Amino acid sequence: MINEGKYMSISPEVILPGVMPKFKIFFLSAKGYYVLWALEGNRVTDQQLAKLTKSGIKEVFVDLDERFKYEEYLETNLGKILENPVSSIEQKAEIFSRVSTYVVKAAFETSFGTGSLGPTLVERTKSMIKNALFFLTETKALDPLAKMVGHDYTTYEHATKVLWFLMAFLKENPDILEIVEPDYHDLPEPQKRDLLAHCGVAAMLHDVGKVFIPSEILNKNEPLSGLEWEIIKRHPLSSLAMFLGTEIPEFVKKAVLQHHEDFNGCGYPFGLKGLDISILGRVLRIIDTFEAMTSRRPYKEAIPPKAAMEIMIGTPQKNLGGAFQALEERDLNMKDCFDEELLKHFIVFLGKLNLNE
Known about the structure:
Layout lengths: L6 E4 L14 E4 L5 E5 L7 H9 L5 E4 L3 H10 L1 H6 L5 H26 L3 H20 L4 H7 L6 H18 L2 H6 L8 H16 L10 H4 L7 H7 L2 H9 L6 H9 L20 H15 L11 H8 L9 H5 L13 H12 L6
Antiparallel strand pairs: 1-4, 2-3
Helix pairs in contact: 4-5, 4-7, 5-9, 7-9, 7-14, 9-13, 12-13, 13-14, 14-15
């Protein structure tokens, strides 16, 4: 028995016999002691796992110092873990959120030091998305997605939720993909998945240029000054610059650059208008805005989904209390900011989610 050190809990549902890292795995006894269950995780057998499940133990533990190995294991085996029929949808959603946040955090932190993303980081992001595509686009996965709405906003979690929304929305609206790639419906399945994964890269890394914005501006608890707002508005250009050394397709680079352009021509960085904005850029503009508005921030409460949609279609209600007071003038003048047809499709899509009003 061991009762020293620091441990992190993991679900037995994520254990894949034969591929776990070579670390010790413990369970917590009724007396509060950490008891060694597996000397080497990579040698865990199906029989051991079945016996553990039958015992009713819901969590096991690994040494906190082994966290990096565990995170690496989750990322490498994400596809198999998400396809595991034993795991619950909620458990899969938690694992996916953990891995995607970990990957985005790594992309932001590494690019901050180098000023570019580099092919390895982009490929890592794309690989993670491809491994999760089945889960991201299956109907049952929409329930945990709905539960994520209203949570706290951080750049990493925001990227994860924008990715999830985008993948599920594109699954419901495949005609959008045919605008991105006219031959989409005739493509072999591997190429379709590749196209979807590239769209996901745009969603996950659309804000990566924010690494160059001072944290005191990003985390400010009150309205930004004019100068601070101009600094914020540079991030799409910074994001694009970081993609330039990669082999990412042009439609991804355009979407990242254009995700703050408004359909009425009042957006940034170039004030593009209407169909001059790429289809993926127009979709990201909608999803990015909705997710940000329905998340808690240090300076405002989350806006309910229905109220956020009313604001986005240009009919904001004043019965939001403090949340309404925290809205800025630009938030209250959103009519015509979005592609109306795409916004209608997004509203229909939201209707299929079990969202709180």
